[in-house]
């Protein structure tokens, strides 16, 4: 599987390109029809780098996936989808955010973002696919399964692939600890958005966030993921479920909670 991650200049959102197989582009590559791919979380300002990357690898997006509807994750989604005639795909509970992703950030973060980048022009995407838990997105031989993981937002979603990238197709900075190596024995890749980070989890103090829901998501969804899963978060370096299970204080706290109670404590993530 090909996986390329490029952090956006605004808030460092990891924009990720996935396709079945291994890279086939570059100078001297044979001509042919572009292979299907998906782009996940195209953040603000990434299109100028994303277009030549897709052309170089001879890839054609057939879907633009977003893990949740915050502006830093959907900033270029509508434009990218229009360019390639495809759908923007996200969980149904976050679809309303595509009407006004700036307003969904809350007043403080919105003000800080606009002070940094200026006014953001936004036109909602023309085609939207609304997912439910367990739905699949297919791009050629690549299959991604949507796993609803609310807490950061109502519709936050993990995208799970039963495959792992070829190490050569992943930039060194996108690998665990920046080592440039993939741990041995991985079988699964999880695009985690702002649910799970290396050493932390997503904040729950923005509009639509819910600390109790996040606590249940960590216990019932994240801790149910296999240890041999590579985690590509929405910000920061990649990690593995095994590493986070051992070291992430929020997962350690979640693991200590009784299963399926109604009095989960709030989380205080970054």
From TrEMBL:
Cofactor: Zn(2+)
Gene3D superfamilies according to UniProt: Ribonuclease Z/Hydroxyacylglutathione hydrolase-like
Pfam family of the protein (one): Lactamase_B
Top-level taxon in the UniProt lineage: Bacteria
UniProt KW keywords: Hydrolase, Metal-binding, Zinc
Membrane-spanning residues: none
Domain Metallo-beta-lactamase: 34-235
Region of interest (Disordered), residue spans: 249-270
Xref: InterPro entries: MBL_Glyoxalase_II (IPR051453), Metallo-B-lactamas (IPR001279), RibonucZ/Hydroxyglut_hydro (IPR036866)
Any one GO MF annotation of this record: metal ion binding
Name of this chain's protein: Glyoxylase-like metal-dependent hydrolase (Beta-lactamase superfamily II)
Species classification: Bacteria, Bacillati, Actinomycetota, Actinomycetes, Kineosporiales
């Amino acid at each position: 599987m090909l996986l390329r991650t490029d952090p956006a200049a605004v808030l460092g959102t990891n924009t990720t390109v996935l396709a079945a197989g291994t890279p086939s582009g570059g100078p001297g590559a044979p001509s042919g029809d572009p292979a299907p791919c998906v782009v996940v979380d195209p953040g603000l300002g990434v299109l100028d780098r994303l277009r030549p990357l897709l052309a170089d690898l001879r890839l054609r997006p057939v879907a633009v996936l977003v893990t949740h509807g915050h502006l830093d994750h959907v900033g270029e989604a509508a434009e990218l989808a229009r360019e390639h005639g495809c759908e923007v795909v996200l969980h149904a509970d976050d679809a309303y955010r595509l009407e006004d992703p700036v307003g969904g950030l809350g007043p403080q973060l919105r003000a800080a973002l606009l002070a940094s980048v200026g006014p953001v022009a936004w036109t909602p995407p023309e085609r939207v696919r609304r997912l439910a838990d367990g739905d699949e997105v297919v791009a050629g031989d690549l299959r991604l399964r949507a796993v609803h993981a609310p807490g950061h937002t109502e519709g936050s979603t993990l995208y799970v692939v039963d495959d792992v990238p070829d190490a050569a197709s992943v930039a060194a900075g996108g690998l665990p600890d920046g080592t440039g190596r993939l741990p041995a024995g991985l079988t699964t890749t999880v695009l985690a958005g702002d649910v799970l980070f290396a050493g932390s989890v997503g904040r729950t103090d923005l509009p639509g966030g819910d600390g109790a829901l996040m606590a249940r998501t960590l216990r019932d969804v994240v801790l149910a993921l296999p240890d041999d899963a590579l985690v590509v978060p929405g910000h920061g370096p990649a990690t593995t479920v095994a590493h986070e299970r051992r070291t992430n204080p929020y997962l350690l706290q979640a693991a200590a909670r009784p299963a399926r109670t109604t009095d989960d404590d709030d989380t205080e993530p970054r």
